[in-house]
Amino acid sequence: MIFSIYIINKAGGLVYNKDYSDGLAKLSANEYLVLAGTFHGVHAITSKISPVPGSSGIEMLESDTFRIHCTQTLTGTKFLLMTDPPQPSIDHIMKKIYEIYSDYCVKNPFHTPEMPIRADLFDAQLLKLVKSVGGLVLSSPTANNPYTVNISNSVVAGQQSSTSSPTPTMVNTGS
Q: Percentage of the chain surpassing pLDDT 70?
């Protein structure tokens, strides 16, 4: 199960975060920023002190209740995926997240690099990916997460689904 996705820019700033589980403790905006900055610093330190030459830093941090998987691109952007410990085959999921990021953020002429990501199509595609790997646990809309998931064979934000499987769409039920 996928709990959360975080994207950190090369300077250590949090540019995207999304929780996909109601069971997570709700953090304030400042706490998310501190989390990103701390991980960025620890990642940089571990790449320097690693006994393995050319180490890129932390790839996975594991506890009894969760794992944090990290993939760093050549430009220094870090993708963090928080999962439960038995989550299998993370590599293909991380590659797919990077593909979605490339298609809906990097190629978006209205997105400024290194700045927070505000793209509905990006959100929708990540939601579709998380749903496809069985990682979405949202019981009901709340003040912190006003989105519900509707499954239909309809158009998602102006694009028809390329598969015959149902397409998840996000509906904002908050004000």
A: 77
